[in-house]
Design brief:
Length: 578
């Protein structure tokens, strides 16, 4: 009898223990787990492309209120037929199988609507917008790829835009003649709806985590230590780079060196926090990335890599290299990913940035900010202030990118990406000799916006005043200023920490960004919901020596580890002074 009572008591205690654990999990642990799970799994929807007043360019898709199937098929034929290889004497860039599959699906839906004799509605117009953008973006990409070098006229235009933007971005809190003439009031919205160009924030995902959320949606997997395989050299841009493969051989990366390795990371995180889609650059410290060569590729070892980078970019890569040679068995004990490559040539670096080119994301050309009434979109006009906030100079159309993202189960969503945000955070330009340098903290002003005599003035220059920026209004910038106000101190610091600047430089950038944020909110007379203290006379000593004094960097920190230099104004076009 005693044993039976004892057994019942033990069973009761076990039940009570389970009940208590369940209560603790539901009330204390589950909310945190749920938040993390939501952040990981929360899907990103495409949003709507529709404007309140549809662009006349879309009229060709409609015939007597119904789908103009002949025109739809013409667009589809150009986008999907690999036998069409030339557009205006330019070779058409390769069409991916995934993009062709997506476009054919869109065309099939229009075929069905035509057969059912349906009237054109919002659902069909969404497809019209997307087909038009994809069509024009492919054409733009083909023409851009045909122009491998920047023309003299383009260089002059960039310089003129830089001068004009430095003087010309002034705004009054009223509807000016310029605004009344250029802005379609029917397309103005106080807060834009979700679209491929911009997304509202969601409370489940902190703003500084949106970069990671976008990366997860694209299945980007950046490890703390990376092994990548050389694929081919790159001819694009002015920053030295090559194309490399992930070990799965499906996902690609762009491997870069130079003065953008920190700035691109922070700029992309901030733009993502403000609601935009971005490229995904990841910074790698000394010896944290191993580049493996294949004897069957065009570049077979470190020496050949140096020669090719010098040939294309006129930059000596040697100061950025740490170790190189042949992968050994001992190396595989320290990094298991190297096991299949024993005996292969490798090289490691002092610092570099790895930018994702995931297989799930297919890149077209520009997202055409000046076409299809995109210049009427508040989210694109307001982006001017986001560029000003980070001091991004390179705002050319080629740094806007139209993509399709595979969401699984053969479903795709269009997304507009702000690409190459690294020409920021302190930019200097040289004319004789031609040169430019980015990431110079002393050249990054403490303030970006000022208010005087009823006028707001922005002071950061850009090299291309695209139509949305030219037509931006006070109300557009006020909208973005409110978005910037939502960034608090911990968020700002977390995003800066992703760049892994030396600590004194990271601290100085934190104070300068906080000050620039405050200048924006003050100029637009906004109450700061998250005041961030900053010190314009910031002073930092390391081992008794002034590194930062009165808000200025005095010492070129660890110059051997940072061969691009944080003080020298000699940039990529003059080999960083080496």
């Amino acid at each position: 009898m005693k044993n039976e009572i004892k057994d019942r008591y033990q069973a009761y205690l076990k039940k009570m223990k389970s009940a208590v654990l369940l209560f603790l999990f539901v009330n204390f642990l589950a909310p945190y787990n749920s938040l993390a799970q939501t952040e990981r799994m929360l899907p990103i929807e495409r949003g709507s492309l529709l404007l309140n007043e549809h662009p006349p360019l879309l009229d060709s898709f409609v015939n007597d209120g119904r789908i103009n199937l002949k025109y739809v098929r013409t667009i589809g034929h150009f986008l999907t037929d690999n036998d069409i290889t030339i557009y205006k004497k330019a070779a058409i860039s390769g069409r991916s199988k995934a993009t062709i599959r997506h476009i054919k699906h869109l065309i099939e839906k229009q075929e069905e609507g035509f057969q059912d004799n349906l009237l054109v509605n919002d659902e069909t117009r969404e497809v019209f917008y997307e087909l038009y953008l994809l069509n024009e973006s492919l054409k733009q990409k083909s023409l851009a790829n045909a122009q491998t070098k920047m023309s003299f006229n383009d260089k002059i235009k960039m310089e003129l835009h830089s001068i004009k933007s430095k003087r010309g971005f002034r705004y009054k809190n009223s509807i000016t003649d310029h605004e009344a003439k250029n802005i379609n009031k029917n397309n103005l919205q106080e807060d834009p709806k979700d679209s491929p160009f911009w997304h509202q924030s969601v409370k489940q995902v902190p703003l500084d985590k949106r970069f990671a959320q976008l990366a997860r949606a694209k299945k980007i997997k950046a490890k703390k230590e990376m092994v990548v395989l050389f694929d081919k050299s790159s001819l694009s841009g002015s920053a030295p780079k090559i194309n490399v493969l992930d070990l799965d051989l499906d996902n690609k990366w762009s491997l870069k060196w130079g003065d953008e390795v920190h700035t691109d990371v922070v700029g992309s995180h901030i733009f993502a926090a403000l609601g935009y889609d971005v490229d995904h650059p990841y910074y790698y410290e000394e010896n944290k990335l191993t580049l493996i060569f294949d004897e069957l590729k065009e570049i077979k070892n470190k020496e050949e890599l140096k020669i090719k980078i010098k040939e294309i970019y006129n930059i000596d890569l040697e100061p950025f290299i740490t170790t190189y040679g042949t992968v050994t068995i001992q190396m595989t004990k320290e990094l298991a990913d190297l096991q299949p490559y024993v005996g292969k040539q490798y090289v490691r670096f002092k610092k570099c940035v790895l930018e994702a080119r995931p297989d799930r994301v297919k890149r077209m050309g520009s997202f055409l900010p000046g076409m299809l009434s995109n210049e009427d979109r508040r989210e694109l006009r307001g982006a001017l202030l986001a560029h000003q906030f980070i001091g991004n100079w390179d705002t050319r159309e080629q740094n806007t990118l139209l993509t399709t993202v595979h969401m699984g189960d053969y479903k795709y969503r269009m997304s507009a990406v702000f690409s190459d945000l690294g020409a920021s955070f302190g930019v200097v330009q040289g004319i004789f000799p031609p040169d430019f340098k980015v990431g110079l903290v002393n050249e990054f002003p403490w303030e970006v916006a000022s208010y005087k005599k009823g006028t707001i003035k922005l002071n950061s220059s850009i090299n291309s005043i695209l139509p949305p920026y030219q037509q931006a209004t006070y109300q557009d910038l006020l909208w973005m200023a409110k978005k910037i106000s939502e960034l608090d101190g911990p968020m700002l610091r977390n995003m800066i920490n992703k760049a892994k600047w030396p600590e004194p430089i990271a601290e100085l950038y934190f104070h300068k960004l906080a000050s620039r944020r405050a200048s924006i909110l003050n100029a637009f007379d906004l109450t700061d919901p998250h005041p961030i203290p900053f010190d314009k006379n910031l002073t930092i000593k390391v081992d008794g020596e002034y590194v930062v004094k009165n808000g200025e960097l005095l010492i070129d920190i660890d110059k051997d580890k940072n061969p691009e230099s944080f003080l020298s104004k000699k940039g990529r076009l003059t080999n960083y002074g080496h």
